[in-house]
Structure formats: structure tokens, C-alpha cells
Specification:
Layout: H1 15-21, E1 38-39, H2 51-55, H3 69-73, E2 83-88, E3 94-97, H4 98-102, E4 108-115, E5 120-130, H5 131-138, E6 146-151, E7 171-175, H6 176-179, E8 185-190, E9 193-194, E10 204-206, E11 219-225, H7 232-236, E12 260-263, E13 269-271, H8 279-282
Parallel strand pairs: 1-4, 2-11, 5-12
Antiparallel strand pairs: 2-3, 4-5, 5-8, 6-7, 6-11, 8-9, 8-10, 12-13
């Protein structure tokens, strides 16, 4: 398999084998992964972006602000050992290593488009399971309304972060019903392999109807809260980045239009679709809300 190839369906690791390799075998190694991961019926019918395009054009400011920086700067990122904690307003706080995290629910392939706020997008075969499986294990308390996420940050491994101009560690948040929605997944791999470092190894979020920066990478901490949590881009530029950050072609970024997007691997622009094409599934979450005010 070449870097540019999309891994054929059915060539994926069994769950335990997949987690053993996470952080140890780079996706670019070309190792083909044998069966065990089913394709989700929630997947798009669009063809995936070529692998080489998707993994060499990234936003991951801990490893540089240029789109090609993360693939270079994150090559030696250490993702073992790794622990994800789940706390706050929960009845059963958790501290899970990668093997435990991967055993909570069957892994499945979700072919989702990821739309970035800078008007580019990619269609990626993500591998993971609904975040709701993890949150249910922690048993949210009655007062829990939001879910806050925090990325790993180590200035020794991420010296380029000092140039980013935003606070670290990176923080994001969702409303609890958004986090529990079946489209929202805890992602452990892509293209039939563990996540490469520049894509948020070893575990990230994918929220396909929101702009890409909501799909926080390299997660180490999840906290359930009663109040809306602070998020990195809201703290840095509140007039430009709303808490909800749903893909909406009718709400422009103050410095550019969001009506069009460029799909990686294509030479053409395309019209941006409300909720990134998932309107039938998620529009009910925002019934009665002014999506220009709550952008």
C-alpha cells in the first residue's frame, strides 16, 4: 500500500491488536490491518480523501501553525503510556489506559467529512466508537450539562507551541446532549491504522457537524460540568469563534466567507452544507435557537 492509497475496507486490526499498536506503528508504515472493524451505517457515501493528502495537511498548533508542520514536528511524539481521566459531575470517575479505553465498545469505521474553519475539508475513514459509551460508563450526575475536554501538553515535546499565540493545554467543550449524540465518536484510528501523531494520537474526538477545531486531539482529560466550560478559541478570539461552532455557510468568519470549501485532493471548490451535511440527524439539537447568535 502506498501513502496515497486509501486502505481497502476489511483490512483492519482486531480491537486488542489495534490498541497494542497504537502509538508504536505509524500509519505511514503501510502495514495492512486484518479484519474486525465494521463500517458504520452512519458513514457518508463520499469517497475518502487520499491518505497522503489527509495526513500531511493539518491544524495542530502544539506542533506548529503551518499546515505541513505537524506531520514533521510530531514524528517523535510519545503516546505510551497514556491515561484519559473522566471526572467532574460523574458518579463513577474513571482513569483509563489505552487498552482499557479501547475495550469499552466495539470499534467501527465512520467515513465522515471534517470541515475546517479556514474553508478546507477532507473525508476520512475514522475508527472509533460513540463517545456516549465512555460517558455512560462514568454515569453523568443529574447536574451535568456540559462536557469539557483537555489535550495533552508538554512544552519539551511541543516547543513550537510557544509560537502559536493561544493558551495551552488546548481546551474544548460540548453540551452533554451533543456529546451523547451517536454521531460523536471517540476516535482511535484512521485509514485502518492507529492515529498518526499529527492527527491527534492516540485518542481524539470527532464531531462531524462542527468545524474541525471542536474535534480536539490527544485527549487526556474529560470533565462533566454544570456550566459552559471555557474553550481555547473562545478565550483567544471570542468574536470569531463561538462555543457551538456548527458548520453554517450562512455565518461567515469575520475575515472570510464560509459559503465555499476546498476538498483536499480536489482542484475544485464546493458549496458548504449546513451542519456539514448531517442536518437530518442533528438539527433537532438546536430547535428554537438562533444559529447566528449561537454560532
Amino acid at each position: 500500500m502506498t501513502d496515497a492509497a486509501v486502505t481497502p475496507k476489511g483490512l483492519y486490526l482486531r480491537r486488542r491488536d489495534f490498541l497494542k499498536l497504537a502509538g508504536l506503528v505509524p500509519a505511514a508504515s503501510g502495514v495492512r490491518m486484518p479484519g474486525g472493524v465494521a463500517q458504520s451505517p452512519l458513514s457518508t457515501s463520499e469517497p475518502p480523501t487520499p491518505y497522503n493528502e489527509a495526513v500531511h495537511y493539518n491544524n495542530f498548533y502544539e506542533f506548529g501553525t503551518g499546515k505541513t508542520d505537524p506531520a514533521v514536528e510530531a514524528r517523535n511524539f510519545k503516546t505510551r503510556p497514556w491515561t484519559v481521566t473522566v471526572g467532574g459531575l460523574v458518579q463513577k470517575p474513571l482513569a483509563l489506559d489505552l487498552d482499557s479505553l479501547g475495550s469499552l465498545a466495539p470499534l467501527e469505521e465512520r467515513i465522515y467529512p471534517l470541515r475546517c474553519v479556514e474553508a478546507w475539508s477532507a473525508v476520512v475513514p475514522w475508527i472509533g466508537y460513540p463517545l456516549s459509551a465512555l460517558l455512560a460508563r462514568a454515569a453523568p450526575g443529574a447536574r451535568a450539562r456540559y462536557v469539557a475536554f483537555e489535550s495533552f501538553y508538554d512544552p519539551r515535546q511541543m516547543p513550537r507551541a510557544r509560537q502559536a499565540g493561544i493558551p495551552f493545554p488546548y481546551r474544548e467543550g460540548l453540551r452533554l446532549d451533543e456529546a451523547m449524540h451517536p454521531l460523536t465518536i471517540l476516535c482511535l484510528g484512521m485509514y485502518g491504522a492507529p492515529l498518526p501523531p499529527q492527527e491527534g494520537a492516540p485518542v481524539r474526538l470527532i464531531v462531524p457537524w462542527k468545524y474541525g477545531f471542536k474535534s480536539i486531539k490527544s485527549i487526556v482529560k474529560i470533565t462533566l460540568t454544570e456550566k459552559q466550560p471555557p474553550t481555547t478559541w473562545r478565550l483567544s478570539a471570542p468574536s470569531e469563534y463561538g462555543f457551538y461552532s456548527n458548520v453554517n455557510p450562512n455565518v461567515d468568519h469575520p475575515r472570510w466567507s464560509q459559503a465555499k470549501e476546498h476538498r483536499l485532493g480536489s482542484s475544485f471548490s464546493r458549496s458548504t452544507i449546513l451542519f456539514n451535511g448531517f442536518g437530518d440527524q442533528v438539527s433537532g439539537l438546536y430547535s428554537g435557537m438562533d444559529l447566528r447568535k449561537f454560532f
